[in-house]
Amino acid sequence: MIDSIRLAMLYTAFAIVATFCNILAQDVFSYIYSGPFYILVSIIIGTGVGLVIKYILDKKYIFKYKTQNAQHDGKVFMLYTVMGIFTTIIFWGFEFGFHAIFETKEMRYVGGVIGLMIGYICKYYLDKRFVFRTV
Question: For the chain, what are the domain ranges?
């Protein structure tokens, strides 16, 4: 019981870190670039930043998964990314939806945070079942 509570708290903390990095990357990019498609590009960049950070933390601390070599690590990361496509659709749906409804940067970020929270819950179960498993 304590192990599962500890795991949930750790996973939540890592989700918060990755979410913060995602939103920060979006905000920094939006500050630097305000040209065509800046919102789409900022969301893609933020998604990439959050993905890499969350992968590193999940692999090491949540699933305690050790890859055999760089090639194996690349394959695991690709599978992790594929599992993230569904959860990214949830995240982007909320972020773009809030942007369309409220038309402010702040509310777009609120939508992004809500979408990421829902997505990370789904992602844990997908990763546990399909990505970080022993063969």
Answer: 2-131
